Structures are given as C-alpha cells and as structure tokens.
Amino acid sequence: MTSASSLLAASRAIRYSLSSSSGRRGARFRLDKVFPLGEEPEYDRRRMRTLFAAAIGYLAGTFPTADVVSLYAAQHNGEKAVDLRAAGTGNPGALNAAKLLGWKYGAVVLAGDLVKGVLASVAGRLVAGDSGAYAAGSAAVIGHCAPVWSGFRGGKGLATSAGTSLICFPAYMPIDVSLAAGTLMLSRGRAGTATYVASAVFIGAAVYWWRARKGNYWGPKPTVGLPLYALSSSAIIAYRFLAAPPALPEETAIEEEIIERESAVAS
C-alpha cells in the first residue's frame, strides 16, 4: 500500500509540474487531460482484463474438436483412432474429418469449431467488455490455428473465425457469407483464393465500420479493436492456407462442398 501511495503521489507531482510549466509557456497541453488524476489503476485493470479475455479466447480456440470427434468415432465404430494431423491432408479440421471419418463427423467438427469461436467471444466480452470480445475473438482463431498443446499444428480457422464474427462483427456476416460463397464459385472451388479475397474485404469493411461508426447489431461497439481483430484473425488464416500443401483435385471438390455447408451453418 505504501509503495502504491508513493507511486500515485509521484505521478501527481510530475503531472502538476508538467501542467504548471506548460501553463507558464502558454501551451494548451495538459497531461491530466490525457490521464486524469487517479485513473491509472482503472486503466491498468482494464488492460489486465483485456489480456485475461485474450488468454481465455486462446485456450478456448485450442480445444481439439477434431481430435475429440476422431476418438469418439473410433470408439463408436470399434476402430483405431485416426490421427488427422498424420492422415489425409494433415489438417485437423472439418474437411479432413469428413474425408477420413465421414460427412456426419465432419459436420460435427464444423459445428464444434464454430461454437467455440462464439463461446470465446462471449466470454471475452463478459470479462472485459467490447475490447475483451475483440481480443478473445482474435485469440480464439489464433488458438485454433496454432494450439500450443499440439506443437502449434492446428486447423485453418475458417469455422472458428465464422463463430467469432457472429459475436464480434454480426453486421457484416451476411456480406461475408455471400462474398465467400460467390468467390468460391467464381474461383472454381479454390478455397484459398476465396479466403484471400474474403479476408481482404473483411479487413476493409472492419476499418470502414470503425471509422464511420456504423451499427453492429448485437455485437460490440466498432472501435479500433474491430479492424485489429479482423487483421489478426485474417492474417493467421491466410498464413495457414499459404503453409498448407497443395490440395489434390478430389480434395478440392470435397473442400468446396465443406465450405458451402459452412456458409449455410453460419447464415
């Protein structure tokens, strides 16, 4: 308590000195206009809550939906569990699960990844308000794509990103789904191309919503956190697509159908 009181007293003394000297020079700058007296602890608390929300989001994103579904499928069918990181495309996501385990299990993985994006963003907002929602949403996508428990070998993040968008940027969701589906058809099922285009427009829309102070339905208020959320989540998804090995023709056809189903679930 003594050290905290000393720091606060020193802060006030410095602020008074700077404010007085700037007043003598006729300047209009006053430090207490930037950080009013006594607000440093509250600012630190907000920052810590936001960091805590991001940690929650990351942990939620690392939940291994595909691995859990693979284990369940093996027990249900009386077979050996399939390691989705070592078989098929090597991606622990809905596409690879559908290919190796069947459409039913692929759909469960898709829904589970989407739900964890929703829950992470909701939890972040409960912990730290609007900033917490954006921080947790970004971290959930990063956690899905780079989970620490699996050597940072995760999925591509599309379903988890869609789940976070339902909470963080619901005003843009109809546009996002329509754009992704349209680009996918025009690119003849090339999911990478559709993802890059949709991500670029997503970031641009986030900047516009923030600068124009557009409404965001039930989502958080558009602040600078919105474009930062869009940029970080889009960047990690783009990286995962760029780092992935080229898909075979039959895998591309399956991927097209998976993304069409994902768009239907998101809408």
Describe the protein in words.
The longest helix is centred in the middle third of the chain and has 43 residues, at 103-145. The protein contains eleven helices and no strands. The protein is mostly helical and 267 residues long. It has helices at residues 2-24, 31-34, 40-61, 65-77, 94-101, 103-145, 158-168, 173-186, 191-212, 225-243, 249-266. Helix content is 74%, strand content 0%. The protein has one domain (45-266). The protein is globular, with a radius of gyration of 23 Å.
Overall strand count: 0
By DSSP (H or I, 4+ residues per run), the number of helices equals 11
Q: What's the end-to-end separation, in Å?
A: 53 Å
Radius of gyration, in Å, reads 23 Å
Main beta-sheet strand count, sense and barrel state: none
Overall outline: globular
- Regions with pLDDT < 50 over 5+ consecutive residues? 17-32
Average pLDDT, to the nearest integer?
A: 83
**Total individual domains:** 1
Task: Indicate the percent of residues in helices.
Answer: over 70%
Give helix and strand order, one letter per element, not per position: HHHHHHHHHHH
Beta percentage is: under 5%
Broad structural category: mainly alpha
Strand and helix layout:
Blueprint lengths: L1 H23 L6 H4 L5 H22 L3 H13 L16 H8 L1 H43 L12 H11 L4 H14 L4 H22 L12 H19 L5 H18 L1
Question: Which features would summarize this protein structure in a list?
Answer:
267 residues; mainly alpha; 11 helices; 74% helix; 0% strand
